[in-house]
Amino acid sequence: MKNAAALSGHQPTAVPAVGASASALVGAPSPTLGGAATETSTRDRVTQLLLERGATTAAQLGLALGLSPAAIRRHLDAMLADGDVVAREQTVQGSRGRGRPAKVFVLTEAARVRCGTHHYDNMATAALRWIARSGGPDAVEAFAAEQVSALESRCRAAMEDAGDEPLARAEALAGALTAEGYAANATTIASGGQLCQHHCPVAHVAAEFPQLCEAETAVISRLVGTHVQRLATIAHGDGVCTTHIPTQPGRAQSGNPVTTVRTDR
After folding, report:
1. pTM of the predicted model as reported, rounded to 2 decimal places
2. Distance from C-alpha of 219 to C-alpha of 77, rounded to nearest angstrom
3. 158 with 106, same domain?
4. What's the average model confidence in pLDDT over 68-94?
5. 39, 6, 38, 4: which is closest to 24 by C-alpha?
6. Exposure winner among 7, 29, 82, 143, fewest CB in 10 A?
């Protein structure tokens, strides 16, 4: 949701493909030109799914793409060799059955960079450092709030028919953010709801200036119409920006309507 267009002066662009050479395919014969195009297209689809879903198993990817276990494994091996993905042990909630948990695959930071508009990170970071030196933390907070204001207005307009129920508004907000290029989705969980953003165009900048994340969370609170809790951010090193919407929270108030809670540290 962090508006890269506001920081860079450019509108968000469609997610480009992560580059892949046919020669990188592990264990695959030398393809024809048409075969190389097909392989690259499939890897682009794998990349897009990982961008949208975050950590995903090979079985889940294969099912979503209609690929056999051997085929999806071949693509993932190639992406591992190219440094586009990393494999991690799947986190299992509650009691775990016998055997080792399945591996999940996550895009690397280098792959994420190629999927977004990070070209102006250095300039944006330098500008924020200058603002911090000249005006202090309050000036940075004011700048961050102003940068997300236009996006808030567009999302509010897109949510006009969402009603007043917070979880329904979160679902509508996810659709509005996805239309803006942020690969968002909303889900219902036992304790309320979750809004997940799988892409952050300015993660590198927000890593140094968390005021951007705080301004974004305040916007989510106002648009959903209730108190929310930010559980994780891509800027902090998490795979997904996750915002929790409690089941029966208080209405959002001016001043400090958001709470940041770390669950992975």
Report:
1. 0.57
2. 40
3. no
4. 86
5. 39
6. 29
Q: Are 173 and 204 in the same domain?
A: yes
What is the CATH number for 85?
Answer: 1.10.10.10
Burial of 86 (0-12, 13-18, 19+ CB in 10 A): middle
Query: Model confidence at 180, in pLDDT bands (50, 70, 90)?
Result: confident
Q: Are 147 and 232 part of one and the same domain?
A: yes
Average pLDDT of 233-256? 72
Tell me which residue range forms the domain holding 60: 37-91+101-115
Task: Using alpha carbons only, give the angle 79, 82, 86 rounded to the nearest 5 degrees.
Answer: 55
Residue type present at position 83: G
Most confident of 68-77, 101-110, 113-122: 68-77
- Count of the separate structural domains present in the chain: 2
Same domain membership, residue 143 and residue 76: no
Q: Where are the beta strands (DSSP E) in the chain?
A: 56-57, 85-89, 103-107, 184-189, 192-197, 228-232, 241-246, 258-260
Query: Torsions phi, psi of 254, nearest 5?
Result: -70, 155
Cα–Cα–Cα angle for 86, 94, 63, rounded to 5 degrees = 45
- Average pLDDT over every residue of 115-120: 56
pLDDT for the residue 64: 92
160 and 80 part of one domain:
no
